[in-house]
Write a structure and sequence with these properties.
single chain, 7 strands, 26% helix, 42% strand
């Protein structure tokens, strides 16, 4: 059984700009993978010429987007991007939920950190 991780990152960007980078193929292609295509609810993510497909299973505009890998062994696994606005500072917290093998947790967190660093550069916040 894989372990659920929740990672939080703070942005100074607007929720709508950030949400577009999390929920659309062009937005995801800017930071998440080399290329993204979609047909209906199926998104094809491309890394180094290798395709991985995920289904968009749930979304609430400017709040969260949840995907499920089509080749996932566990029906309960997903990856999700959710946004929360901090009331006092109005900063936006991006919370990424993912599932990892225990022995790969540090590598997965490092990968997410690098990808979110790229997202920070694309949204300027």
């Amino acid at each position: 059984m894989r372990k659920r991780i929740d990672l939080e990152y703070i942005f100074s960007s607007s929720v709508s700009i950030l949400f577009s980078r999390l929920s659309t193929a062009p937005g995801l292609a800017e930071w998440f993978s080399d290329d993204v295509k979609h047909a209906g609810n199926i998104f094809t993510f491309v890394w180094d010429g290798v395709d991985e497909q995920a289904e968009l299973v749930d979304m609430k505009k400017n709040s969260f987007v949840r995907f499920k890998w089509l080749d996932a062994d566990d029906e309960e696994e997903f990856f999700e991007f959710s946004l929360h606005v901090e009331p006092l500072t109005e900063e936006v917290a991006l919370i990424i939920t993912d599932f990892v093998d225990d022995d790969e947790e540090a590598d997965e967190i490092e990968l997410w950190n690098k990808q979110v660093e790229m997202l920070h550069r694309t949204v300027g916040g």
